[in-house]
Write a structure and sequence with these properties.
This protein has about 650 residues and is mainly β. The chain is built from no helices and 52 strands. The termini are far apart.
Length: about 650
């Protein structure tokens, strides 16, 4: 069936329209203005037989239709409440005039301000201060365009009712950036228990926060609570801002209460600047490559195999003030992915070790590439060492106690052929050369590794973020490998948790003298917006308490983190408690440590989401990929460098905490 609307005094949409012109049943919508003559023809024609049709004549009614809201209201003496009118066919926008009828002679019925309003614009009705008894009156809204048309509402002027009142628990408070505040509103004489709505105003740019969680079941009758969530970006322009929180009665929007809130600075803060760094930076390391006592930046640039760009290593020499020279590129294998700096040949000069993906996407395997430093910021040609099928994370430590740096590389393996991967250990000879890789099983699909002496036996151990649990494909976990001190590993323990971990860091989060573990995890897979941050506290003997989620203290996954591929620990604010910086979505976030394995903040929730409010947000890049920390401007504070994959640069976050 097809439908057509025609008229002698109109064409097209001026005749109105139907909602589904090819359906068997339709809804006709009249035009916004009345045609002359005020009739249209609605014709239905069969698709199978265009000669078969039927028509109906519709007469359009131009009368103004008025309805009043609320339809029924009880008001206290002297109180003020809102009324509004909806109008149909009020083509000229004349609106309505307001009156009250039904009061006894000589008894005032109250007043309206204004007495005339457009459609949808409320008027304020004020009841008389005294009446002899309750009065059943009628509110009348009369069309200005057509005074014969009106709408009504029932009005009770009560001698016993009390006006709605709204009050807040306090009038002026301070909330830190990234903090929260439970705001309590008391709404009295609320006949239908509609409660209050909460708003925040006073900022222009950036936004000054929002309300994330309202409690549906109030703790006390007439009490309503919402959680104010302060902005998470510590921008100096926001510190000291005074914002206004208002609670407004849902039953009577004319009743409200407000409080003043001052945003205070955070304990941790950074200033940010970007520096160019090759094509698709993926890894970053900090060291003094030219012997001037100033930290420099080394970046692993993945390149672009589709454009015959194999990638390289870029060196940005530091000036000592947090700024850097233009990058200088050095060849470093095929598609470098991660990078570390160490003195492999023990000549007092910093060398570079880079792992690469090899001939991707055509196939692997990957390599570890060693670039020996010349001590002036330049490097020799790379030496290549096989490093498994899919190397990703790498680190340097002395695993065999010979005082020579060794290299450990995670290998994700190849599940299509039953290869679970592991950790490849390449022992250093002290002359810049590495021994052939020895594969150490370490869970399933290792993604990231970190090294510490977890059991305090003087031997370096390994912790591995395994993307999958060896016993289940539904989640991953951590594998901890105890070092034997000779380059081999003894006992291993696996700790499972919800999600798929992609990075791991180690440090003493609870102050007991042993290194704990912090991991970033996905709820699904790479690129899925559903991550959590996991903490496993060291029992003091190299074993770990069951991993728990930062957000919920119960291992559940919270939404909000995309691509958490790197995490580092440092005391950013000088309080002697480790903090954590991580890739968090398109930003770098900092979790401020409490010194007991927990972090400052709390879990809050919104519509279908929950997250940990308390993290501080820095930078906004398309794809931040990895982090490194060091004191770039010699002020004694740890700074952060971020490799930004898509923007072909690094972000330098200079620590301004306490300034």
């Amino acid at each position: 069936m097809t439908w057509e609307v025609t008229g002698a005094g109109c064409t097209g949409y001026d005749c109105g329209y139907v909602d589904a012109p090819n359906a068997n049943t339709v809804i006709y919508y009249p035009p916004n203005s009345l045609p002359d003559p005020a009739t249209v023809t609605l014709t239905a024609t069969a698709v199978a037989n265009r000669e078969a049709s039927a028509a109906a004549t519709i007469t359009l009614d131009a009368r103004v239709i008025v309805s009043v809201y609320p339809e029924n209201l009880t008001i206290a003496l002297g109180d003020t409440r809102q009324f509004g009118a909806n109008l149909i066919n009020d083509f000229g926008g004349g609106g309505v005039t307001w009156t009250v009828t039904g009061c006894p002679d000589g008894v005032p019925c109250g007043t309206f301000s204004p007495e005339t309003t457009p459609a949808g614009v409320p008027t304020q009705y004020t009841a008389p201060p005294t009446v002899p008894n309750d009065i059943q009156a009628t509110v009348v809204a009369t069309s200005v365009a057509d005074p014969s048309q009106s709408g009504t509402a029932a009005l009770t002027i009560s001698t016993t009712a009390k006006p709605i009142t709204v009050s807040l628990s306090s009038t002026a408070v301070e909330v830190p950036i990234a903090g929260t505040l439970d705001v309590t509103a008391t709404v009295l004489h609320d006949p239908h228990h509609q409660g209050a709505g909460f708003t925040v105003a006073g900022c222009t740019s950036p936004p000054c926060g929002f309300f994330a969680r309202a409690i549906d079941d109030p703790p006390e009758p007439g009490t309503w609570v919402a959680t104010y969530v302060a902005p998470s970006t510590p921008q100096t322009t926001m510190v000291g801002n005074e914002v206004t929180i208002t609670a407004t009665s849902n039953e009577d929007p004319g009743k409200s209460a407000s409080m003043t809130l001052t945003l205070t600075g955070s304990a941790v803060n950074f200033s940010t600047q970007d520096a160019p760094a090759g094509h698709q930076p993926t890894g970053v390391a900090l060291a003094d490559f030219n012997g001037d006592g100033i930290l420099d930046i080394a970046v692993a640039d993945y390149g672009d195999s589709d454009a015959s760009d194999d990638g390289d290593v870029d060196i940005l020499l530091g000036h000592g003030d947090g700024t850097f020279q233009a990058p200088t590129a050095f060849a470093a294998g095929k598609n470098p992915i991660n990078i570390v700096a160490t003195d492999l040949n023990r000549d007092g000069r910093q060398d570079i070790v880079v792992d690469d993906f090899g001939e991707r996407p055509a196939g692997g395997p990957g390599d570890v590439n060693v670039l020996l430093g010349n001590g002036d910021g330049s490097f020799g040609a790379p030496a290549h060492f096989a490093a498994g099928n899919l190397p990703f994370s790498l680190l340097t430590a002395d695993f065999n106690n010979d005082l020579n740096p060794d290299i450990a590389v995670s290998d994700a393996g190849d599940q299509s052929v039953g290869n679970d991967g592991g950790v490849n250990l390449l022992a250093g000879n002290g002359d810049g050369l590495l021994n052939p890789a020895v594969l150490q099983p370490a869970g399933k699909t290792p993604a990231w590794i970190t090294a510490q002496d977890f059991n305090s036996d003087g031997r370096v151990d390994l912790a591995v973020a395994d993307y999958q649990d060896p016993a289940s494909t539904s989640h991953g976990g951590m594998t901890v490998l105890a070092g034997n001190g000779d380059g081999t590993f003894g006992s291993s323990a696996f700790y499972s948790f919800t999600g798929y971990p992609t990075s791991i860091a180690a440090g003493d989060l609870d102050g007991n003298g042993t290194a704990d573990l912090f991991a970033c995890s996905f709820a699904g897979g790479f690129g899925v917006a559903g991550g959590s941050q996991i903490v496993a506290l060291n029992n003091g003997d190299g074993s770990f308490a069951p991993p728990t989620s930062v957000e919920t203290e119960g291992g559940q996954v919270s939404e909000g983190s995309i691509f958490p591929l790197s995490a580092v620990m440092a005391d950013f604010d000088g309080d002697s408690k480790l903090d954590v910086a991580e890739i968090f979505g398109h930003t770098v976030s900092v979790l401020h440590g409490n010194g007991d394995g927990s972090f400052q903040g709390r879990r809050v929730s919104g519509f279908r989401t929950r997250w940990f409010q308390g993290r501080l947000i820095f930078t906004d890049e398309p794809d931040p990929f990895s982090l490194a920390i060091g004191d770039l401007n010699a002020d004694g504070k740890p700074d952060i460098v971020v490799a930004n994959l898509s923007s072909d640069d690094v972000s330098v976050l200079l620590n301004t905490s306490g300034n």
